[in-house]
């Protein structure tokens, strides 16, 4: 028995093997929590179309984390062309806490040929542009986030197909000016490549310490 313990100690004393051991341990812990999503994060400033962050592209489930820092804050994301990534259904969540019952952030698709512009929309649009807004969730649906080890409340869903060769943006804002963290989820496959698993682990560490509540 002492012989095996000695070998384990020797392995863990090697920096590279220690890193691999920790890597596998965290990966196993994340996958054991249920459905996993690769974390991505908004970067400020992204309050106008020229500043829009590129929306993440992956065949795995992704979770885009952001924060509405002030009553007038909006977050914009530019969408890749359909040949690279065809977005169809996005789910918007907020952390499930004492304030989640009063928060109603909205995610909307902005571009040519869409619907009418909502009242008090926070972005100036041309006469050719329109808006497709998310559908509010009517039931109390929660998702246990394996990256933050906490529950998130579903606020709304947005479903669409992107026409070819036309630029579109996603905007996230709160019509009543509430502030706080949010998460935009797009469902896909489980992380299955080494690169995706590394993204999952490194992103989950940041999400745990930054977006837990």
Which secondary structure elements does this structure contain, and how are they paired or packed?
Layout: H1 2-13, H2 15-32, E1 38-41, E2 53-54, E3 62-68, E4 75-78, E5 89-95, E6 106-112, E7 129-133, E8 135-136, E9 142-145, E10 150-159, E11 169-173, E12 180-186, H3 194-210
Parallel strand pairs: 1-3, 2-4
Antiparallel strand pairs: 3-12, 4-11, 5-10, 5-12, 6-7, 6-11, 8-10, 9-10
Helix pairs in contact: 2-3
Describe the 3D structure.
β9 (142-145) and β10 (150-159) form a beta hairpin. The chain has three helices and twelve strands, in the order ααββββββββββββα. Strands 1, 3, 5, 8, 9, 10 and 12 form a seven-stranded mixed β-sheet that branches. The chain has a five-stranded mixed β-sheet with strand order 2-4-11-6-7, with no helix packed on it. It has two domains: 1-32; 37-210, Jelly Rolls. The mean pLDDT is 83. The termini are far apart. The longest helix is centred in the N-terminal third of the chain and has 18 residues, at 15-32. α2 packs across α3 (194-210). It is globular. By secondary structure, it is an alpha+beta fold.
């Amino acid at each position: 028995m002492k012989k095996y313990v000695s070998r384990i100690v020797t392995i863990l004393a090697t920096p590279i093997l220690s890193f691999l051991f920790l890597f596998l341990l965290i990966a196993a812990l994340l996958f054991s929590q249920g459905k996993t999503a690769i974390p991505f994060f908004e970067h400020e400033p992204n309050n106008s179309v020229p500043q829009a962050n590129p929306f993440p592209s992956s065949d795995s489930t992704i979770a885009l984390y952001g924060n509405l820092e002030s009553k007038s804050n909006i977050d914009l994301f530019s969408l890749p062309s359909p040949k690279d990534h065809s977005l169809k259904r996005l789910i918007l969540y907020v952390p499930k806490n004492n304030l989640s019952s009063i928060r109603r952030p909205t995610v909307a698709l902005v571009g040519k040929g869409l619907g009418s512009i909502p009242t008090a929309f926070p972005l100036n649009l041309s006469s050719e542009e329109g808006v497709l807004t998310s559908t509010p969730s009517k039931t109390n649906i929660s998702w246990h986030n394996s990256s933050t080890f906490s529950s998130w409340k579903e606020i709304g869903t947005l479903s669409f197909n992107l026409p070819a060769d036309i630029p579109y943006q996603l905007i996230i804002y709160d019509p009543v000016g509430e502030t706080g963290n949010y998460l935009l989820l797009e469902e896909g496959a489980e992380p299955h490549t080494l690169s995706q698993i590394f993204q999952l682990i490194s992103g989950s560490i940041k999400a745990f310490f930054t977006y837990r509540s």
